[in-house]
Amino acid sequence: MNKPPLANQYEDDRHFITAIARGLDVLACFRSGNKVLGNQEIAQRCKLPKSTVSRITYTLTRLGYLTHDEESSKYQLGMATLSLGVGLLAKLDIRQVARPLMQTLADETQGMVTLGTRDRLSMLYLENCRSRSALTLSMDVGARIPIVSTAMGRAYLAEIPLQEREEIFGRVRELDEQASDALMVGIASSLSDYERLGCTCSFGDWQKDVNAIAVGLDLGRQFPVMAISCGGPSFHLSESFLLDEARPKLLDIVRRLKETVGQPA
């Protein structure tokens, strides 16, 4: 599901500064798999006039948030963008503790183990460990996946307060009311799974040939709510294997991470 431009979501809010939102929308276009973009591509993604995008990219380039390649007339993220995430990454030192635990599970399951948090209606990969097998999915840190159809997104939804969850559901319905009905059924089932199994499941819901389970990770107010998932191709990681073999180990990782920061398991 594509993320709606920030400016469009709050157009009736008199405290909302549309120009800033549009600039942030432009920066958000540069995802893991789209490192170089032209004004036309950005305009299509942000649903803005090309002339408006040209002024925004010019401004962001002058400030160092984008760099411009004269030969191709395209842009990529500049070094100033890195400074925006430094404070958050400093808070996420938990990744250093999680990484070896995640890599062990990835090797044991020959799957992919990922730590992520929410970015609007997506889950953003913060850490990703693959097995040394060639069977894992090709996705890197910085990649985004849907929040409503993936195990990771559903685990995040199960972990957050009801009010925040309902707000997200409302935004999903605004985007596609018809499709959201089916998605809500899947989410309701996942919330039930979370109560019963301690994890959420997505067996072919996101991509028909991908199975995954996930557990929410709430480490207290100094961290964003996160989720850890374990998954991979369905022909390699069956539902029973993930639930019987991977689930206890995934729950143990969450328990150990909570103990690291002094949170009750």
Automatic annotation (TrEMBL):
* Every HTH iclR-type domain range: 17-79
Q: Which residues form the IclR-ED domain?
A: 80-263
Please name the Gene3D superfamilies in this protein's record: 3.30.450.40, Winged helix-like DNA-binding domain superfamily/Winged helix DNA-binding domain
What GO MF annotations does this protein's record show? DNA binding; DNA-binding transcription factor activity
- A GO biological process this protein is involved in? negative regulation of DNA-templated transcription
Record flagged with keyword Metal-binding: no
SMART domains, sorted = HTH_ICLR (SM00346)
Q: Which Pfam families match?
A: HTH_IclR (PF09339), IclR_C (PF01614)
Q: What sections of the protein cross the membrane?
A: none
Show the SUPFAM superfamilies listed in the entry.
GAF domain-like, Winged helix' DNA-binding domain
User: Keywords, A to Z?
Assistant: DNA-binding, Transcription, Transcription regulation
- Domain of life from the UniProt record: Bacteria
PANTHER family per the record?
Answer: HELIX-TURN-HELIX TRANSCRIPTIONAL REGULATOR, ICLR FAMILY, TRANSCRIPTIONAL REGULATORY PROTEIN
Q: What is this protein called?
A: IclR family transcriptional regulator
Write down the species. Answer: Advenella kashmirensis W13003
